[in-house]
Amino acid sequence: MNYLPRNEVINTLIKKKFYLVGNPERTKATQYRHNNLRDSVYVKKPNNSNRYKISTHLVISPEFEKHLDKILEIPGVSRLKVGKISEYRYNTGYTTFPKRKKEPENVSETNYGFDFAFSNNTSLNTFLDLLITLDNSHISTFSNHALAPHNKNEKQSIDKANSSNTILNSETIESSISVIDTEREALIKACIGQNSYREALLNFWGGCAVTGCDEPDMLRASHIKPWKIANATERLDKFNGLLLTPNLDVAFDQGLRTFSSDGTICISSRLKRVGHSLGIHEGLCLKKLGKQHIAYLEWHRINIFKE
């Protein structure tokens, strides 16, 4: 199988708002951080020797070990098994990761993590989204304290209970853990589901729904009725989705353009002055239109479009 090369992995990290840490010339692995991730991720430098058939592309913290099965559900994501160490990737360059002995007989310990390779940009993007979802403090588990507040209302409830000398019993704690575990599971499935949703749109449209551009890396899966408002069925309905180039996607999401019931473009007065410079003009229309699209497009015209 062919995997994304190192430079494409790095480019995707940057597009996802990861930023470089330290001097990459002085370390064995290049470190990247994200504001919504507690741990760094590392891109290992190419190995000059040819001991291994494939190099590590991206290494994450061993803190994610319990989530490996979920991560590997993402199509196009693979673990790399190198040499006789099949579980972990060891490297002193992973400076923020914990250490352990590479072999039982070793005296010293080495930083370690889990390595992954990606068959395409979609799999890498979904992988990074899932890492952030798993690591998000809102869905963290109770590993360090019995009952942690995960939002303002929950904190106020706990503070009120404490001020009244109310003791949280084991049933309350177990119930709270169960709710948060269920919420985390739903978010994980949604993150993986969005990868399948994009594939469904690629199969339906075959390229940009307007221009016909068929370069996958230049296409965005855009909901007509936004994800945060749509119900569970609407979120995964391919007729609630358009595959668009970035300029068209942003204009659509911001309500600067929409489509009529026959698929012709409607451009906001706010965009008409600069529309042509962005490739957005009156002559554009959807390549095809199913009757199932019409209700979604009407909703967008009423609720999102800015005339």
Automatic annotation (TrEMBL):
<keyword id="KW-0255">Endonuclease</keyword>
<feature type="domain" description="HNH nuclease">
    <location>
        <begin position="208"/>
        <end position="259"/>
    </location>
</feature>
<protein>
    <submittedName>
        <fullName>HNH endonuclease</fullName>
    </submittedName>
</protein>
<dbReference type="GO" id="GO:0004519">
    <property type="term" value="F:endonuclease activity"/>
</dbReference>
<keyword id="KW-0378">Hydrolase</keyword>
<keyword id="KW-0540">Nuclease</keyword>
<dbReference type="InterPro" id="IPR003615">
    <property type="entry name" value="HNH_nuc"/>
</dbReference>
<dbReference type="Pfam" id="PF13391">
    <property type="entry name" value="HNH_2"/>
</dbReference>
